[in-house]
Every structure is written in structure tokens, then in C-alpha cells.
Amino acid sequence: MIQFLVYSSGLGRLYYELWEEGATRYMGTFTDPNQFGFYIFIVLLFAYLTKHEKADTYLFPITSVMGIFLVIQSKSLAAFLGLAVLYTLALLRFIGEKFRVNKVILCVMLILTTTGVVYYFIPTSDFRIEDVEYNTVNRIRYKIYNVIYADGIKDILRERAAEKIINYPEYFIYGAGEGNYERYYPEPVNEIHSSFINLFFSYGLIPFAILMGWFKKRLKGLNAVSLVCFITILIEHMF
Predict the structure, then answer these.
(1) Both ends of the chain: CA-CA distance in Å?
(2) What is the 3-state secondary structure (H, E, C) of 143-203?
(3) Distance (Å, rounded) from C-alpha 32 to C-alpha 21?
(4) What is the dihedral of CA 119, 120, 122, 128, to 10 degrees?
(5) In this predicted model, what pLDDT tens digit does every residue of 33-57 receive, in sequence order?
(6) SS3 helix, strand, coil % of the chain, rounded to 5?
(7) Band of the pLDDT at 147, cuts 50, 70, 90?
């Protein structure tokens, strides 16, 4: 709510894209729009995880609307994806528990919804980000355009310093170890964007398999709400 008040007061900061004059992203009191978006995402995730009181039934929808609005203003795609996953899974959980809907039907609903959303965002071959309004929807279409029509997959890997997983696949077997990223020069000299892929690449097959076994045992004890939050974070942190 504080960040929403900052936005409403006009005191929030703007990030100006270098590639086009007038293209901006909102970042509130933060210094980076992606950090701002991630902050809002985590706050809403924690609010969903901890809502137990009767007042939360009313407060959570209100804060959700505020948070989603702020994430859209930040144009943070990872945060937007995280919230989309969170509310989709939360809705499916609510439907499944409230109306006793079969899990197979819920999976079909999820597949159909995902397909429809993806189809909506797929751009045409003549799409140009410079020719449309710079907003979250068109940022998503721009990313998808690069994947379909340009060198987008390599660009995504390069942004996340993950090109090394293609150039050095043998490390998935025995592990590359952490640090000393200069050895991969001229690739980006830092770690792979925080994800399980980095753990797999850095530590190799056997340690990673042990870690996944540990995760599997811990996940068995999670309730439905905690599982929704875990899956949400798992998907969001990949991007």
C-alpha cells in the first residue's frame, strides 16, 4: 500500500529506456524497475501464503489489485509472469476445493487457459516495438517475437549469462564449480541467472540429483497453499 501511495502522489521514480525517447518504466522508491517488480511480487506471494484472518479475505484482493497495477507499470516481465502463475494456481486451487472439481478437469482448464493467453501474446511477423505503445503487453510480444523470428533464445541465454550451458555441456556431468567466470570469456563474466540450471551446471549430475531428492522429500509435507507458492517461485526465478 505504501508503494501505491508513492505512485499516487507522483513521487515515484521512472527508469528511462536508452533505445527510445519517452519509453519509461516505473520503479517507485527503488533504483531498478525489475527490483521493484520483484519486491511487489514477493509481498503479494507472502500475503497469499499468510492470509488466515477474516480481514485478509477483503484486504488480499485490494492489495492484489494495487500490486498487479504497480507491476504492470514497472513492466517487469518476470514479476508479471510470477503473479500470473500465482493467481492462476490460486484460482484453480479455490475451484478444486470449493466445487470438488476433478484434478484432470483442472489440468485441462489450465492447458486451455495457458494456450489462449499465449496465443493472445504471439506477435505478427511485422511487429516492431518502436511502432507500438511501450507497455507490458508489447514488451511480452517483443520478447516472443525475438524467440520466434530472431535470435531470441540466444539473447535470453546471453542476458542471463547462460550461453555457457550450450558451449560447455560436459559440466552438467561433473560440474563447473562456482566462481572464476573469466574462464568463459568473451561470454558474460558472471554466474548463470539464479536458477536450478546454475546449480546443475555448477555442481554436476550426482550432487544435483541428491539436492532434487532432498527437495522431493520436503515437498511431500507442503499443504496446498505452500505448494502453490513454491511452484510460483520456481517458475518466476527462471526468468
Answers:
(1) 26
(2) HHHHHHHCCHHHHHHHHCCCCHHHHCCCHHHHCCCCCCHHHHCCCCCCCCCCCHHHHHHHH
(3) 18
(4) 170
(5) 999 999 999 999 999 999 888 888 8
(6) 65, 5, 30
(7) confident
Q: By the 8 A CB rule, do 23 and 15 touch?
A: no
Q: Is the separation of the CB atoms in 147 and 159 below 8 Å? A: no
C-alpha cell at 8: 499516487
DSSP state of 151: S
Residue 178 predicted with pLDDT over 90: no
Cα separation of 133 and 79, whole Å?
A: 20
Residues 220 and 183: beta-carbon distance below 8 Å: no
Name the residue among 155, 135, 141 with its Cα closest to residue 76. Answer: 135
Angstrom distances, CA of residue 91 to CA of 12, 108, 162, 218: 32, 14, 33, 24
DSSP for residue 239: -
Neighbours of 168 (CB within 10 A): 14
Three cell numbers at 155? 539473447
With beta carbons less than 8 A apart as the criterion, state whether 198 and 191 touch: yes
Average pLDDT over residues 109-115: 89
| 60, 51 Cβ separation under 8 angstroms | yes
Q: Grid coordinates in use for 22?
A: 519517452
Rounded to the nearest 10 degrees, the angle between the axes of helix 56-74 and helix 2-9 is 50
pLDDT (tens digit, 9 = 90+) per residue, 67-83?
999 999 999 999 999 99
CB 135 within 8 A of CB 115: no
Count the residues in the chain. 239
Mean pLDDT for the stretch of residues 219-237: 88
SS3 of residue 48 by DSSP: helix
Model pTM score: 0.83
Tell me the residue type at 1.
M
